[in-house]
Amino acid sequence: MAGLHSRLTTFLLLLLSALPFIAAAAPSSGCGKGPTLYNGQTVTTNINGKSRRYTVRLPDNYNQNNPYRLIFLWHPLGSSMQKIIQGEDPNRGGVLPYYGLPPLDTSKSAIYVVPDGLNAGWANQNGEDVSFFDNILQTVSDGLCIDTNLVFSTGFSYGGGMSFSLACSRANKVRAVAVISGAQLSGCAGGNDPVAYYAQHGTSDSVLNVAMGRQLRDRFVRNNGCQPANGEVQPGSGGRSTRVEYQGCQQGKDVVWVVHGGDHNPSQRDPGQNDPFAPRNTWEFFSRFN
Fold it and tell me: Which positions carry the signal peptide feature in this UniProt record (predicted)?
């Protein structure tokens, strides 16, 4: 009987280790209350004496008793909050609306926040864009029902740099990031704590060399306790994206790296595919954390 109990315990532990990472929900102070923010609202706030704004997108049939994921979407340099909301032509290197994530969110599990950058970017001078993030997170947590354990961030180029900056400085607030063709552009205060990390980059990137993306990735390979890869993976035939799942990472601190043969493009497609792969890869990664 003791041997059977031991084998059953071992089986259950192996089963649990194979499941997606699941943590207890942490409902925000806005749960159970009528919302103070509404769908499509543009909110204006003041950070370091500067007027800042952002937009909130709520799921259909928002339920004030259901803690939602909160996903921050940061635009690239020269873009804007409005362009992320409306989207641009993906055939000309533009992003899909809301980085293409809402259509993949079939269970309507997420609230989206789209901030607007100063001078159309995220220079984060004296940490002001991280302070902007803090302000948004507090306001949304108070005004809506979110799971504070499920806060995510993604963006392309400068927006990827801003997501990386949050992974460095707000590891206690951000569950996972998805950095699309990013570099260290918005600083990296702290930068020593583990955060689940997805990144993709093109080996022909003419704006931010792929080495810059690898440098960001390697920081979180170390932080997350993952086993380093044996050499750099290369794109597949025709520039097709190649995906690496790093092994040995701390539980719930996954690192995924996708490399492709393309240029500086948030809407890169694999040969023969109609849809960009960044949205589905990002959503799959964020969905691991329930």
Answer: 1-24
